[in-house]
Amino acid sequence: MSAAPRTRADAVRNYERVIAAAAEVLAEKGAEAGVPEIAARAGVGKGTVYRCFPTKDHLVSAVLGERLRWYTDAARAAAERPDAWDAFVELLCDSAERQAGDCTFSAGYSHESALPEVAAAHEAMHEAMDALMARAQAEGRMRQGVDSRDLKMLFAGVSQMLRAAGNRDPAEWRRYAGLVADAMRA
Fold it and tell me: Which of 70, 78, 171, 183 is the least crowded, having the fewest Cβ atoms under 10 Å away?
C-alpha cells in the first residue's frame, strides 16, 4: 500500500494565495476579472495560477462554490427558524447587502459552468431555498407557485441593474431586496 503523494508546502501556500487573491479581485470586478490581475494580487505568475487551476472557469468556480455554500447553509438555517417568511426576507436582505460589496455572488447567479461541482452547488442552493420558500408558502405568507428559480430571475435582474449603475450602497441593495420580497408576498 503506497502513501498518497504529498503536496509541497510552497504549492499549498501558492494555492491559498491564489484563492484569496481571486476572492478579492472577483468581489471587486466579478467574472470580468482577469487571470493576470489575480496573479499579480497573489504575488505569483500566471503559470502558477494555471498550475493551481487549469482554466479561469475552474478558478471562478472555486470562489463561486464558496459563496454558494454560504448561501445554501444560510438558507438551511433560515428554514429552521419558526417564522419562515421573516427568515426568507432577512436572508434575502442580508444576501443583497453582501452582494453590494461582492460581485462574485451576483455574477454567480448567472454563471453557467460546465464543472459538475458548480452545478451541484447551484442545485443544493436551489433545494435549500425551495425548502425555505415552501415553508413560507405553507404559512400563507408567500405567494403560491413561486420558487427559487423565480427568485433568481427577479434578483439577478435587480443585481445586474445595480451593478451597471455602479451602485454599491448596501442600503439600496437591501431596499431592492425588500421590493423583490414584496413581489413574492401572499
Answer: 171
